[in-house]
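Lecture 7 notes: from sequence to structure.

We start with a single chain of 234 residues. Read the sequence below before looking at the structure.
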Amino acid sequence: MSARDSDIDREGAFYRKKLLLNMIIPGIFVILMWLVKISEILFEADFTKGGIYPQTVKGLPGIVLSPFIHADFRHLFNNTIPLFLLSLALFYFYSEVALIVFLWNWLLTGIFVWLAGRAAWHIGASGLVYGLASFLFFSGIIRRYFRLVALSLLIVFLYGSMVWGIFPGVYQNVSWESHMVGAFSGVILAILYRKEGPQQPKYEWMDDDEPEPEIESESETNSETEDNDVSKLP
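Now the structure, written as tokens:
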């Protein structure tokens, strides 16, 4: 095996390991979502009141708990795939700030829904999904790094239709408030953390913009000297 092939194998092993490590937190979150729903079915319970009920004390725990509670398995499945893929993209491409962005997105979305949502129980992880999609899209655009911009375009291609979910009345029995404030949280976090994490590489040629110093010709210098000497004559 040549040295080049060995380097390629090591690089491939590195990225596979990175991918697997970055699956841990998204995977744990998704597993907890499914365990909560399975427990609800097994014990014939209703965890809806663990969600967010805006502007009430009883609704405060839902700021943390609501992403784990879903109305049915269809609701759960619809949130599982985008949540896992988007959070995996966050941890893979923004590993330096991924955890703090994930946690703040989770809390900000819940707080905003509690402050401004309708008088109803708001449950599900869709607000978190919208927050992740929003952060990944706007962060790539703000940083102007071609790899992250490509990720932004991929997000639009895969989940661009999600934008309709932020408007009231488009979907019935859906917390459009969670979608809207989740997307808003993602924009805020993309701006706040724009200088942390991956940045556009800066190449040496980008620093060669300083103007070169002016060089006077010898003839001009000599003529100025002669003029000065002439002015000194009586």
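Residues 223-234 have pLDDT under 50 and may be disordered. Keep this in mind for problem set 3.
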